[in-house]
Each structure stands twice: as C-alpha cells, then as structure tokens.
Amino acid sequence: MTTDDSRRDIVERGIFRRAVEAAVWAMPAVNFELMREVLASGKSNEFVYWSQLLDWRNQTLTPNPDLIYYMAFFDTHDGPVVVEIPAESEGQALNGSICSLWQVPLEDVGHFGLDQGRGGKYVILPPGYDGSIPEGYIPLVTETFSTYALIRSVLSERTQQALDRGLELCQRIRVYPLAQADNPPPTRSRDLFGDIVDTTIPYDLRFYELLHRVIQDEPWLARDRAFAEILSGIGISRGTPFAPSPERAATLERAVVEAHEWVRNIYENGFEPFFADSQWFFPATQNFAEAQRDGYDVHNQVYPYTDRAVIYHMAFIGIKHLGVGQFYLVDLRDSDGVLFDSAATYRMRVPAGVPVSQYWSVTMYDAGTHGFIQGNTKYSVSSQTSGLVINDDGSVDVYFGPNPPSERAANSIDTGASTRFELMFRFYGVGPEVMKKQWSLSDVERLTS
C-alpha cells in the first residue's frame, strides 16, 4: 500500500527529473533572457556597447577582450525591425550575426556575412509575417519574436586610433521599425564600459524564473510541444505566476544543479579532439553544428538540445557559417591530459603561420564561471599584442601561471585569483587550412608543479 509520504516522494522525484530535463532544454533561452535583462535592462531595439576593450568587470560568458562589442535585443511583436549594417571603411571590419531567442543564427552580417562588408539592410520578420518587404532589404525569417544582434568591430591593429575607428563604424549601425523606414528615428545606444555586468548563468531558482519569463511572450514551436507539459508539471505555464512552495523550490534548485553537472561533465569529457592526439576541441557535435546552420527542423532525425545546452552554458552567440569568419577551439587540459591548475605554470607554443586573415588569440577564463578571472588586467595574448616576442622559426610561446616574470609579460597571462582555468583559441578570418586540419595547434605543456 502506498502511504502519503511515499506518494509525495514519487511526485517530487518525478518533478526533479522533469526539472532537470527542462533546464537542459532551456539553456540557450535562459542565457538569452539573462543577457537581455542585465545588459539591456529589458529594453528592445537599443544598442549597448563597450567604448574600450573589455576588462574583468564584464562577467559575460567567454567574451573576447581583443575587439569592440556592439549588440542589441529586438522585439518584433509590433512588426518587422530593420538592422542597417554600414559598409566597412578605413581597414575596419564588422563580424557579426543576428540570432533568434534560441540562439539560432538567422544570418551572419558584415565582412564574412551576406553583405560581404558592403553594408546591407536586414529586416527581421516576426513569426507568421506575410506582409510585403521593400526592395533592397534582406529578409530574415525567425521562429521567435525576440532576437538579437551581436556585432564585433575587428581592429586592424591594437591601438587607440584603431579602436576609435572601430567604434565610429559601430555607431553607424542603425535599428528601426520597418514601418518607419521612410523616416527612421535615431538609434539609441548606451556605453557599458566600467559597469559590472554579470551574466554567468545562475544555477538556482532564478534559472526557472528566467525561463518562466521567456515562455510568456513566445510561440510554442512544434518540435518543443512536449516541453509545454514538462514545464507545466514543474509550475511554469503561460499566463500564470510562477510561485513554487519552499519545498518545491528546493527540488527545483537541486534539479538545476544536477542539470549543470550533467552538461559540465559532457563539456569536460564528451568531445573528440579537433586535431589528432590533441587536447584542443570544439565544444559541439556535428549534429548540433548542422542544426544551427540549417535549422533544427531540417535535420529532424535528432534534436540535439543536450549538445545545445553544453555550448550555451559557456558561450553566447550563434554563427551561421562557422569556420569562415570565426572559429573557436577550447582546451581544459595539459599535454598529459590533466586539468589545468592555476597554481602551476604552463607553456603553449603557437606554430608559425596561423592561417588567419584578421588575427589569432588565446584567451584565459576562470574554469568555474567561463568568464574573465576577476581582478586580472590581462586576459589574452594575440597576434596583435604589443611587444609580442616571436621565436626565430615564427612560432610564439605563450605562458600561463601565477605572477609571470616581467621579461615575458607580453607573452604571458596571469592565472590570478582562479583555482582552475580554461583556454579558448580564436581564429578570425579563418583560413581553409584550419578546417581541413592542414595546420594544427600544439598542446599546452606543464612546466612547474
């Protein structure tokens, strides 16, 4: 006979399982909603930017400290929205993408995008839109009312003059309703440099609060219908408040921690090396990459939402044509396969002739947060680093560890207050040798215990 206590236990176990699955499925949407809340204060059709290169006060997920970010969140409930990308000039290029709430890329823009650096008027269409589109506009069809643009102004060199030129190019980007295209209003923008912004994902009750906000204004997609029942079972429904009891809140908090541990384990142990016998990997599967590029409903044999959760627990962006404008590899371990220890010193030798047309960089992040190490003043070494020491054969040695000596400061990154760190190698203007694996990165060697 089932007792009241055992019935309650069965119910809570079921809710726990469903809450874990919901958190894995919802990772990119919660990531989006948190970014919109913190960076844009919930506002739409307004750009935010950083007028100087990023520092540790920017606690977003794996940000790039070597260029200018310019981004906005859009709402098409009232009709199509135009994003006008200017033509590049004076050696300054824009690399960017426009994405849905689920971080599906609608199109890449700028130098490696559809406009190929010549500029273009992209019009984001709301779900089900059947109105006319003026000639000369590039239509972007999306499944969600909420979308965003993440645009990078790639510097031609690491100087204040180049930064000023890059910022001026960004400030020529415009956003306005299509209905006002004949007389567009001024584009609003806000400088966030100097502000502390933290969008590292909260693995507590706030995760489900963010998810509850997401589903209030967005259509249920056919592929996600089953999750409507799952969310209802954990107290998240459209049109009703999210108000779990203390006992239910405790169950949900245990569930989101479990979901985080699940995706983190895949991140740390679940990927094949990109290069043979290497520790460097791309943190997504082929199934996910194809679904992102072509659409999840095109590749409907599998729905790789777990793979999607893995990448969006540590990053924020969707790229339509990955491996053209940008490509990224991650390393968590030294050449012996041991996780990086911030108390030790390591060396990475970047081989000569990195196949890029813009620049390369290696950036260090706190392995616990996937953000910059707090309190640090340097986060990366790149081909544009001032004073970079290059070996006689064209290779570059990069050092990671506590208190690097001054004589190799240009080639070093301090592990600072972190316990463990992770590395991301960026290729900007990706040469075909990278994707064909005709050129490869060396592993990171541990020098001290």
What are the salient characteristics of this protein?
single chain; 449 residues; alpha+beta; Immunoglobulin-like; Jelly Rolls; six-stranded mixed beta sheet; four-stranded mixed beta sheet; 8 helices; 25% helix; 24% strand; globular
What does this molecule look like?
The chain is 25% helix and 24% strand. The chain is α+β, with helices and mostly antiparallel strands and 449 residues long. The protein has two domains: 1-270, Immunoglobulin-like, CATH 2.60.40.1610; 323-446, Domain of unknown function DUF1214, C-terminal domain (Jelly Rolls). The strands form five sheets. Strands 6-5-9-3-1-11 form a six-stranded mixed beta sheet. It has a four-stranded mixed beta sheet with strand order 8-7-4-10, with no helix packed on it. A four-stranded antiparallel beta sheet has the order 13-19-15-16. A hairpin with a 4-residue loop joins strand 5 (93-100) and strand 6. Helix 1 (4-40) packs across helix 3 (205-216), helix 1 (4-40) packs across helix 4 and helix 1 (4-40) crosses helix 7 (305-312). The longest helix is centred in the N-terminal third of the chain and has 37 residues, at 4-40. The model has no long low-confidence stretch (mean pLDDT 95).
